[in-house]
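Hey, quick one: can you model this chain's 3D structure?
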Amino acid sequence: MKKLKTIIILILAIMATNISYAQSVSHKRVLFVVTSTGQKPNGAKTGYFLSEVAHPWKVLHEAGYEIDFVSPMGGEAPVDAFDLNDPINKEFWENAEYNSKINHSMKPEQVDASKYKGIYYAGGHGTMWDLPQNEAIAQIAATIYENGGVVGAVCHGPSGLVNIKLSNGKYLVDGKKVNSFTDAEENLVGGTEILPFMLETKLREHGAIYEKSDPWQVHVVVDQRLVTGQNPMSAISVGEAMVYALKGVK
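Sure thing. Here's the predicted structure for all 250 residues.
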């Protein structure tokens, strides 16, 4: 009888440990936002910038975070800058689980914001046309932030931040240090006449304390659980800054 009781106690202890582990893993989730726009008004192809997904994914995944994907329309998200000579891009693209996730991205109404400790907006020119107006994703981001979570974005990804409002009625970026693809960089790549707005200018208009470096330099800004990066070269550093910020999220 004593041996049976000992076995039962051991089984219960193992079950409790497994439940605790499963709960801790399930709470280490970050939601990645990608664009559904695959074509600019002039007919040029666009989409999410692959390295701006793959590089932060690599950092967060190795830190133990599960990544899910959402896009305005759900389903297969259009990809831009498809460079598999980049080993991290290749690793991400050839990961069957995550390749399936990004090519079967969730619709906003399928997302339970309470599951996530952070949300990250990947860049790519496509974001400029669909993320700023997407109220459903903006509400998801506001909920995660006001639940104590981290909001991150890089390059054109901050276009998804410009219209996010918190429960106090203020823009998320209002009064915070923020970074993004700069107006100078936009002028250098050309095609500014087709954009719906200039991202740096719009962030400033909505109260952001805008910081930047010279074009193509790595620049990441962190302010009150808001992490933003300037360009594709900043993507890994944004991931690293998010991991650090997420350590403080219960």
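One thing worth noting: The beta strands are 29-33, 48-49, 66-70, 79-80, 118-121, 150-154, 177-178, 209-210, 220-223, 226-229.
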